[in-house]
Design a protein that fits this description.
Oligomer: single chain
Number of domains: 1
Helix content: 55-70%
Shape: globular
Largest sheet: 3 strands, antiparallel
Number of strands: 3
Strand content: 5-15%
Length: 114
């Protein structure tokens, strides 16, 4: 099951790269922004509970999809890029085993313990 989930995340990450190629940005923008969603870990400086909330908000694929679709509908390339980077980052994190966080500990994720 673990390999199946990882292959699914890999395909989603590759799809995000493919979608990025349809946007009018230089190629270097994708890797430059890919780890920006990790800023959402800043909540862990306050507490594990706050950290889990901020981290999960910054790594939520539903939010990513909404941002990308709204950006597409409004013809707003910045929103499209934001949603796409968030989606790609979340897929890449989950491919590496970093899942959404439970409020008790950073290492307690929906994919298991780190």
């Amino acid at each position: 099951m673990k390999n199946l989930l990882k292959s699914e995340e890999l395909l989603q990450f590759v799809a995000a790269i493919g979608l990025f190629s349809t946007l009018h940005y230089a190629w270097w923008v994708f890797p430059a922004l890919l780890f920006l969603p990790d800023v959402s870990m800043v909540g862990y400086l306050i507490s594990p509970r706050v950290g889990a909330v901020t981290y999960n908000a910054g790594h939520h694929k539903g939010l990513a999809a909404v941002l990308a679709v709204v950006g597409f509908l409004l013809k707003n390339p910045t929103l499209e890029l934001t949603g796409l980077i968030l989606f790609a980052h979340s897929s890449f994190d989950r491919l590496l085993g970093y899942g959404l966080k439970y409020p008790d500990d950073f290492k307690h994720t929906h994919l298991g313990r780190l």
